[in-house]
Amino acid sequence: MKAKLKWIDGVCFMGETGSGHAVVMDGAPEGGGRNLGPRPMELVLLGTAGCTSYDVLSILRKSRQDVRDCWVELDAERAEVDPKVFTRIHFHFVVTGRGLKADAVERAIKLSAEKYCSASIMLAKTAEITHDFELREDA
């Protein structure tokens, strides 16, 4: 995997992924930025959400669950001193579908957290990671 990051000005950077996608990262105005894009650590958090969501949906599809929608809300805390690593991350999954089985969703989340999601497994080295979920029936 490769990526490229180019400094624009101040604390603004343009990142390009190996797959050719671009993202602007910037800091808050009080930190010298112009708030043109997300902060780098916000992207780490979003990337982790994407990694685990991909796993959860893949596992649920393989177990023949009729998923119609899925999102994950994250609540994280960081250390107060440098390096300001994540110290706590809570994942709240909301899964909508027809006839979803709670045990299947719980199993999918657990497999992602413990076996498949490299991002959350990596972050678990410094952060207490917790999960919960809610099911919603699609009308």
UniProtKB/TrEMBL annotation:
Which InterPro entries does this entry report, sorted A to Z? KH_dom-like_a/b (IPR015946), OsmC/Ohr_fam (IPR003718), OsmC/Ohrsf (IPR036102)
Domain of life according to the entry: Bacteria
Name the Gene3D superfamilies for this protein: 2.20.25.10, 3.30.300.20
Q: What is this protein called?
A: Putative redox protein
Please tell me the species this chain comes from: Rivihabitans pingtungensis
